[in-house]
C-alpha cells in the first residue's frame, strides 16, 4: 500500500474517494481513478452537509491508523468526493499502518 502514499514535508499525502450517506462507515480497497492515479475508497454514513462527511472521514482514518484526529487534515477537495489527506508523521510508519488496515 506504499504506492497510495506520497511523501510530503512532515508526513504523507493520501488520495481518498469518499462516498457519504453510506449504510456503514468503512474503508475499502485501493483502486485507480480515470487518470490511473491510485486512491483509497471510503464510505461514511454522515451526510455531506456542513462538513459532516469530512469530519467522519477524518475520524475513520484516525481510528484506522491509530492516530489522533489532529494529525490528519484535508488539504484538497473539501467539497468534492475525491479528497487529498495530509497525514502527519513518518511516511514509512504510516504506510505500514495503512497496509495492516487494508490487509
List keywords for this structure.
single chain; alpha+beta; Conserved Hypothetical Protein Mth637, Chain: A; 25% helix
How would you characterize this protein structure?
With 103 residues, the protein is α+β, with helices and mostly antiparallel strands. The protein has one domain: YggU-like (Conserved Hypothetical Protein Mth637, Chain: A). Helix content is 25%, strand content 37%. It contains 2 helices and 6 strands. Strands 1, 2, 3, 4, 5 and 6 form a 6-stranded mixed sheet that branches.
Tally the helices: what do you get? 2
CATH superfamily: YggU-like
CATH class: Alpha Beta
Distance between the termini: 9 Å
Main sheet, how many strands, which sense, barrel? 6 strands, mixed
Query: Which oligomerization state do the chains in this entry correspond to?
Result: single chain
Give the strand tally.
6
How many domain modules?
A: 1
Q: Can you name the CATH architecture?
A: 2-Layer Sandwich
User: What Rg, in angstroms, do the CA atoms define?
Assistant: 12 Å
Helix content bin: 25-40%
- Provide the low-confidence segments as ranges: none
- Approximately what portion of the residues adopt beta-strand conformation? 35-45%
CATH topology name: Conserved Hypothetical Protein Mth637, Chain: A
pLDDT averaged over residues: 94
- Overall 3D shape: globular
Q: Write the H/E string, N to C.
A: EEEEHEEH
Which class of secondary structure composition applies to the elements?
alpha+beta
